[in-house]
Amino acid sequence: MSDISRSINKQDTNAKTSGSIEYISDMKIEGALHARTLRSTMARARITNIEFPEIPTGYYIVDRSDVPGMNRVKIIFDDMPVFAEEEVRHIGEPILLVVGEDRAVIKEIIDGIKVEYEPLVPEFGYVNSVIHYDYEKGDGEKYFKDGSRIITGEYKTGYQEHIYLEPQGIIGIFEDGKSTVIGSMQCPYYIKNAVVQALGIENDKVRIQQAATGGAFGGKEEFPSLIGCQVAVASMKIGRPVRLIYDRVEDIESTTKRHPSLIKFKAAVDEDNNIRAMKVHVSLDSGAYIGLSGVVLQRAMIAASGVYTIDNLSVSGDVFETNTVPNGAFRGFGAPQMFFAIEMFINHVAQELGEDNLEFRSRHLAKQGEATSTGGHFRDPIIMNKMIDKVMEMSDYKTKRKQYSAKDDFRGIGMSWYLHGCGFTGSGEQKHIKAVVRLRKEKDNTVTVLAANTEMGQGAFTTLRKIAAGVLEIPVERVIYNNPDTDLVPDSGPTVASRTIMIVGGLIARAALKLKEQWVDGEEILIEERYKQPDYVEWDDETLTGDAYPAYSWGVNVAEVEVDKATYEVNIRNLWGVYDIGKAIDERIIIGQIEGGLLQGVAYGTIEVMDTKDGRIRQRNVTDYIIPTACDCAPVETVIMDNPFPLGPYGAKGAGELPLVGGAPAVALAIENAIGKKVMKIPATPEYIMELLEND
Amino acid sequence: MVKSFIPGTYEEALELLDKNEMILMAGGTDLMVKKRNWAGLSPLFDKDVLFISELRELKYIRKSGGFIHIGAMTTLEDILVHRETPEILRKAVLLMASPGIRHIATLGGNIGNASPAGDSLPVLYILDAKIVIDGKGTERMVPIEEFILGPGKVYLESREMIKEIVINDVRFDMIHYEKIGGRKSDAISKISFAGGISYKKGRIDEFRCAFGAVAPTVVRSRKLEASVNGLGAEEIKKSYAELIRPIDDQRSTAVYRKKVCMNILDEFLDKAGEYK
What we know:
heterodimer; A: alpha+beta; Aldehyde Oxidoreductase, domain 3; Aldehyde Oxidoreductase, domain 4; 3 domains; 17 helices; 28% helix; globular; B: alpha+beta; Uridine Diphospho-n-acetylenolpyruvylglucosamine Reductase, domain 3; Enolase-like, domain 1; five-stranded antiparallel beta sheet; three-stranded parallel beta sheet; 26% strand
């Protein structure tokens, strides 16, 4: 059998490159009406009155009074209203929809609506904690009192906006007592559950269909549940299909982003220069509603010791509510914030101790069998030493590091080490997701994969088909994977958390094996597989202790930069990466994920600036919110090392988020090396670098 | 309901313009963004629109005597590849927008848009550009610094349009161009700088420099330029520092803009010394 990693054509490539693919905004649905959102202009206020202009026949206002079920969007933490109630809590919060046939009339109505507000005092800082978690490993308190050397550090990270190429868009249809929602999305069943709750109708009266999705990066994990509920309510009220498609500016201003964070460390170091104990606190800015923020916080907290083994660890974290646009899922989900912080801190500790950073980090690097941050275990082989050697050889790291450190020529090189827990945190898969997949062998001997996981450009349809075809030993063309439709496929869980290949692909592989055993030509056969947590996983939700993830993917990056002495601009000259993702299911798809993720991570650390003024995002379009262009891409050299995970399909682990995580710390460490100053926040903009150099 | 006019000839364009007050649309790469509306609706123009970008009579680059004449509707791409284009203008154009935009954006449009961050402007200032303005029966020529009055404001009557840009074909001994944007291409400038120096007998004969995006209009001081021979680098920098008054906005900070302007000027002056 040929190696599974060998690349094949991606299922969606032809339709996407030829332009024939149909995105949600291309869909012509008969009788569909347009909808536009009236939004809060206040960061925090009580709505005292809404005055409407005359509404012509055929035009509708849809607001909270039209929500037949619960006016809350079901997203783990159900605090966000479908439509604003008495109090608006951020600028851009949706108050109501204006729906009708002619967009010009809709706009006129929107412009004619007068909302009267009674302003309330908004909060923009880390003040109102709404979620607090902590966990302990060992007992480190004594090391902070016994005269050990105490080293502290405080790190800040900013917003990141997804800029999926296709803005959010969704269509709701209500026919014969059944609500259908079609749209650009990652998680059809999330939307289904949300719509069921908002409409207050039976489970089988809601159907969700994924349309071709033009990028997501986490931005279409939970946000589409909000607009899905809105169009479901609107189409149910009006009895005609309702189409809600965002423009770019509206999308940037009012959809979720990566949580800004403030992360504090305190390390106790013994006389042998080893960290004996560490205290870590993470603050996340959730924006106006909690949504997924608690889960994001958990992932950030669990990553508190990075790839290092720290025997005594005391970690706490808070989600702070602010009167700004709600933040949510974004590739990495809390880990990019923490890995930036811990990688900088470990290097800063080494620096304070006057130790070689490589030596210091290597000594603390986690080994197979050791306890994880939460007291679980790294059960599988860790090949980081091999990976680090390889990346150093590829980049000539040691020579360059020495050379750049000695010279004042504003060149620098930096290396990041990181991991990413694959799948849901803790027992999330077992307790909440309970993934189910089916394979249906048709009479014509093709096999249809019945799963709810979505293609958003990352290659899921291709790789999942490859897994099925590989196990069945049939040509991949005979395996079919269509855009999920909740009436046709079981809930195999959301397409998030680097779980698709490892968890869903694993279920598909097991189902395929069964099907292979039962295979009879010309007959229809249906196989079902349900997720079962590996026996060894032990997790306590209350104390956040045990095995937080069934497996870990690992990465190392080296970035080489030069900083312009006059303009403080960072020129990224080269990037290298070595990855352990178990086994690549398709090499070209993985390289695409890696290069794209790395670039997104590097940009997060350098050029992607987003901030707010009086609660309003200042960079509201793609002119002002800068993401890298082709000219900003440095050459990337990638090596993937096989380290098969016994429970993953073909040994595969997760890979979607991992490559983003290492970008920011690698480039920030390279900038430090270039300018000889500590980088304490990202993005490390030219403005910040100037500040560092000026404040001598 | 606004009307659109697409004149076939330049003559026709002037006649149409004479009859109605209209918005001039060149390549539209700035205007269409400014006037954008909800997708599916017409852009938000409040006056009729005259589409002038395809007027062939306004697409040319000609050298005549010591001057280069550039038709107002010459695209940035045509300027980029033309052999008569002064090197410093080529450098500026190469860093403007993206290839797609450069194929439709025009020099006349960039001037008419009068953005403080317009990247052709600092170069045009130091090349002593004159703007030829045409209306039916009237033609006048004004220096660029008198034409651009402030952000989005130009000295153009309602029945006039920019016909051509005339630049001095000065061949500097040393040129320096910098654009600082948020990324390497397709970025709006935080700062731009154009400078040129010529020497005679080891002394600076001609010293010109201009800063973009750090004041409502491009900063160029002929008075200061005339006096550089008698001044030291620190004195020159101090004098320019007084003229550069940038602001904080969503793209950068005043402190950064000011500091980097001074650094660039420093580099420019250093380079000037080396050339002597």
